[in-house]
Amino acid sequence: MKNFQWSKLKACTVLFVIAGVMCSCSLDTLTDDLSKVDFQTEKILESTDIQTANMRIASTASCENDCIEPGSSTFYPVSDMATASSGINTKSVSYSAYNTETDFVVEVTYAITSGPTDANAIIIIDIEGDEMEYTEVSSGSTVSHTVPLAGGWAGCDQVAFSVVQEELGTPIAFSESYSLIPVCLDEDVINPSTGKTWMDRNLGASQVATSSKDLASYGDLYQWGRGTDGHQLRTSGTTATLSSSDNPGHGDFITSSTLPFDWRSPQNNDLWQGVNGINNPCPSGYRLPTDAELDSERTTWSANTSEGAFASPLKLPAAGFRSGTGGLLNVGLTGLYWTSTVSSTSARALIFGPESASMTGRFRVNGQSVRCLKD
After folding, report:
1. pTM, full prediction
2. CA pseudo-torsion sign 323, 277, 199, 157
3. Which of 26, 34, 230, 297 is the most exposed place for a label (fewest CB within 10 A)?
């Protein structure tokens, strides 16, 4: 069982309120936005404005038993949705709220589900008193508010937040609380032969490998030098548009079929260099190993194969890789692990399989495993 990062956040008591409001009003009380609505039949219900009771969907996670993997993009949201009718229009407002390793996020979607759809809304999101107001939110749009978590926050600490939608009849409102999910504290492993301290699993893996082909231990596949933006997920989408910056601004896996086979153009050799390096995907205090450091680990194995990789203190699984075209290859057969070392237009990596293991140069566009070294 994993250890959690437990520390104290300022105590707060939150009253959990399920917003279920039902009221009625005359046509005169409707907002100016209703002037945009074409009342073709003038047939209006006696109660023209009705907000439904909320249908809160709680996260299946427990703040006591679950945690967020460092470097992972998998979180544990809670969501809710409510609808209201105004004349011939029906609107819906839904939200999703969750915490990452560093922030609390509330995303709100507004939609007119029946009737004319040109009436905009005002969305107000408040997180622990930090308020953000969005005006002229069109139907089908999603807005979000992100607030950094206070220093020293701990799992199960409560965060209070509220969402209010105004315009087009009766406002829809939510007043909620969320139990923060802690960040997993991965245990370190030390190779007594090299004296180096490593994370005990691959980035994105849910557990330490129990075999060379343990699916839960494979983890994510990073393109060399890229940050944790979602591209590393094995199921992420693809795009052939190269990035001109260190941060592409999206979570797609960037493909390339021409030299130098990199996701970035022009290339940047300064990525992933050290614990404070640009786009370092490892947790605080960790970094990618150099070519020499990872090769030193390899030389201590009992066998220079995938069997030796798993039998080593690091228990490296054969997680496969993602090619420059976006396809998964050699899963359960080959292990490929990035280093921070560049080599001409490529980057150095450890590769092992059933018959051999060595250090080699790999195109930076490839998605490969990352095992972090304690600095």
Report:
1. 0.56
2. negative
3. 26
Same domain, 92 and 205: no
What's the structural domain count of the chain? 2
Among 122, 145, 179, the domain boundary falls at 179
Quote helix, strand, coil % in the chain, to nearest 5.
5, 35, 60
Q: Which of 131, 163, 179 represents a domain boundary (last residue)?
A: 179
User: In a 10 Å sphere around its CB, with 0-12 CB exposed, 13-18 middle and 19+ buried, how is residue 65 labelled?
Assistant: exposed
Tell me: do 151 and 31 sit in the same domain. yes
* Count of beta carbons in the 10 Å neighbourhood of residue 363: 19
* Interatomic CA distance for residues 255 and 222, integer angstroms: 13
The DSSP secondary-structure symbol of 271 reads B
Looking at the fold, whether 159 and 286 belong to one and the same domain comes out as: no
Three-state helix/strand/coil letters over 132-153: EEEEEECCCEEEEEEEECCCCC
* 157 lies in the same domain as 59: yes
173 and 193 both lie in a single domain: no
What is the chain's pLDDT, residue by residue, as a tens digit (375 residues)? 343 333 333 333 332 233 333 333 333 333 333 333 332 222 222 333 444 445 556 566 778 778 888 777 889 999 999 999 888 889 999 999 999 989 999 999 999 999 998 899 999 999 999 999 999 999 999 999 999 998 778 888 999 999 999 998 899 999 999 999 988 876 799 999 999 999 999 998 888 999 999 999 999 999 999 999 999 999 999 999 999 999 999 999 999 999 999 999 999 999 999 999 999 999 878 999 999 999 999 999 999 999 999 999 999 999 999 999 999 999 999 999 999 999 999 999 999 999 999 999 999 999 999 999 999
Q: Please indicate, yes or no, whether residues 146 and 200 belong to a single structural domain of this protein.
A: no
Q: Strand pairing partners for 271?
A: 278
Domain extent at residue 137: 3-179
**226 in the same domain as 86:** no
191 and 173 both lie in a single domain? no
